[in-house]
Structure formats: structure tokens, C-alpha cells
UniProtKB/TrEMBL annotation:
<keyword id="KW-0233">DNA recombination</keyword>
<dbReference type="InterPro" id="IPR003717">
    <property type="entry name" value="RecO"/>
</dbReference>
<comment type="similarity">
    <text>Belongs to the RecO family.</text>
</comment>
<dbReference type="InterPro" id="IPR012340">
    <property type="entry name" value="NA-bd_OB-fold"/>
</dbReference>
<dbReference type="InterPro" id="IPR042242">
    <property type="entry name" value="RecO_C"/>
</dbReference>
<keyword id="KW-0227">DNA damage</keyword>
<dbReference type="GO" id="GO:0006302">
    <property type="term" value="P:double-strand break repair"/>
</dbReference>
<feature type="domain" description="DNA replication/recombination mediator RecO N-terminal">
    <location>
        <begin position="11"/>
        <end position="81"/>
    </location>
</feature>
<dbReference type="InterPro" id="IPR037278">
    <property type="entry name" value="ARFGAP/RecO"/>
</dbReference>
<dbReference type="GO" id="GO:0043590">
    <property type="term" value="C:bacterial nucleoid"/>
</dbReference>
<dbReference type="Pfam" id="PF11967">
    <property type="entry name" value="RecO_N"/>
</dbReference>
<keyword id="KW-0234">DNA repair</keyword>
<protein>
    <recommendedName>
        <fullName>DNA repair protein RecO</fullName>
    </recommendedName>
</protein>
<comment type="function">
    <text>Involved in DNA repair and RecF pathway recombination.</text>
</comment>
<dbReference type="InterPro" id="IPR022572">
    <property type="entry name" value="DNA_rep/recomb_RecO_N"/>
</dbReference>
<dbReference type="GO" id="GO:0006310">
    <property type="term" value="P:DNA recombination"/>
</dbReference>
<dbReference type="Pfam" id="PF02565">
    <property type="entry name" value="RecO_C"/>
</dbReference>
Length: 263
């Protein structure tokens, strides 16, 4: 008998990322686990009526599971201890898209079967904040900025990349990989020409501790600029394709009535 990888029974915390039907009665469920990273679980009988674990494999459920973890290939869930859903995220199509994108970013950054270490708690905390009504666009920006390093892009957002001057007026340069002080703007004619407020938030987002975040207020105008800037960095320097992001970009063009926006 050949044993590929190792198998172990384990109790772990996890967040359901997505699921898809598999064969006639089963499902494949992608779960972000605290200790083993993103893993695909084979759940036998999940599509049958009255399936005993059905509540625990709903999207955006956070639960404590007991299961069989395989290093490679599919893992299995045997039992569930406590489970709860991120309610607002489940009920609101826009929050749902933000949460999907945040999980998609983490999945692209870490890939399957790699522990996220402190990032598991950070992602869980971010989803709780989204669920509690903290600005999802800003939370998304913070995760985007802080995950850049995992995509091999680590812009210096603390001081001028050339002279390391602090407390200056800066602009962002993609080709120099970070901030340029006014004295060095001439080096990059393609710098992004960002205003001070946008630069301030980019820098702040790179340093803020997600675990200690409360609410953040950012003007709509600055939010739009942050979105454009991060789109540019992600499109040019990261180049990943996440379905929920496309959806979020499209939502901008929807009429307010569709989104039940009372304004
Ligand atoms: Zn400088």
C-alpha cells in the first residue's frame, strides 16, 4: 500500500468560502481553516434532504469542525461543534461580494494547504467588521494593501524610496515601488499624481493593525481614488482574476433601486 501525504483527525476552526455540487448527492466545500489554510472538503450526501451537517456548510459560516485532514487531495468533515453565519453578509448582495473578494484575495495569496498563521484571525476579524457594518470598501482596501507582499509586491509606503525623507509631500510611483518625495517626482513622469489624503490612507492602511480596527470614516471622493489606485496596482503588478471583484466593479453602475438604496 502506498500512502500519499499524511492523514490526521483534527478539531479546527473554519470559514466556508464556497461550495459546489459534486456528483449526484455530494458537495465539494472550500473551507478556510485556522491551522491548515484553505482546504477542499468532500462532503458525502450533502445534497440530500435533511443532511445532518447542512447548516455547517452554508457559505459564510464560521464553525468548529472535527474532520479528517489530508495533506494533499480532499479532506473530510465528521462533526461540527458550534456554527454561526455572518448574517449581514449572507443577506446583502454587496457585502456578500466584498466578503467573497476578501476571501478570494486570501486564497490567491496563500493557495491551498498552506497555513495562514496570523492571517486567519485577520480575515475572520475583517469579515466580522464587514458583517457589523464597518465600511466594506475600506476594509477591502486594507486587506489589499497588506496582502501585496504575498503577491511579491511590497511597496514602500512609509517614506521616500530614494532619500527616505519622512513627513514630506509624496506621490506614488509604481516603477520605484513606493512613495516619492516632491524632490524626486521628476524621476518618474508616470507617477500616479495622487493627492495627499489618498497617499495618507495608503500609508495608514499598510500599517494599521486589523485586529484592533474599529470604524474608519473616509470621504467618498477619497474612497474612489483609493479604489482606482489599488485597481491600478493590482492590475499592473499583481494580475489576479477574482470573480467577485468583477462583480463589485459592475455594481458601481447599477441603479440605486436595484440595491434597495433608500437615498
Ligand atoms: Zn526623496
Amino acid at each position: 500500500m502506498v500512502i500519499l501525504g499524511t492523514t490526521k483527525m483534527a478539531e479546527f476552526s473554519g470559514i466556508v468560502v464556497y461550495r459546489k455540487d459534486y456528483r449526484e448527492r455530494d458537495m465539494l466545500v472550500k473551507i478556510l481553516t485556522d491551522r491548515f489554510g484553505f482546504k477542499m472538503f468532500f462532503v458525502r450526501g450533502a445534497r440530500k434532504k435533511g443532511f445532518r451537517l447542512s447548516a455547517a456548510i452554508l457559505p459564510f459560516t464560521k464553525a468548529t469542525y472535527v474532520g479528517t485532514i489530508n495533506d494533499e487531495g480532499l479532506s473530510f468533515i465528521n462533526a461540527v461543534k458550534e456554527a454561526g453565519q455572518y448574517q449581514a453578509i449572507c443577506q446583502d448582495i454587496v457585502l456578500n461580494a466584498y466578503a467573497s473578494y476578501i476571501l478570494g484575495l486570501a486564497e490567491a495569496a496563500f493557495n491551498d494547504n498552506h497555513p495562514l498563521n496570523e492571517w486567519y484571525a485577520k480575515i475572520a476579524k475583517t469579515l466580522s467588521l464587514v458583517d457589523a457594518g464597518v465600511d466594506a470598501a475600506i476594509l477591502t482596501n486594507i486587506v489589499e494593501v497588506q496582502l501585496l507582499g504575498y503577491f511579491g509586491v511590497k511597496p514602500n509606503l512609509k517614506d521616500c524610496v530614494i532619500c527616505h525623507r519622512r513627513n514630506s509631500v509624496y506621490d506614488f510611483s509604481e516603477s520605484y515601488g513606493g512613495l516619492l518625495c516632491q524632490k524626486h517626482w521628476h524621476l518618474d513622469p508616470h507617477r500616479l499624481h495622487l493627492d495627499r489624503r489618498t497617499i495618507y490612507f495608503l500609508s495608514f492602511f499598510s500599517q494599521v493593525d486589523i485586529m484592533r480596527l474599529g470604524s474608519i470614516k473616509v470621504k467618498n471622493e477619497t474612497k474612489d481614488k483609493l479604489r482606482l489606485t489599488l485597481n491600478q496596482i493590482y492590475n499592473n503588478d499583481v494580475g489576479i482574476n477574482i470573480k467577485a471583484k468583477k462583480f463589485l466593479d459592475d455594481i458601481k453602475n447599477w441603479p440605486h433601486a436595484v440595491l434597495n438604496d433608500d437615498e
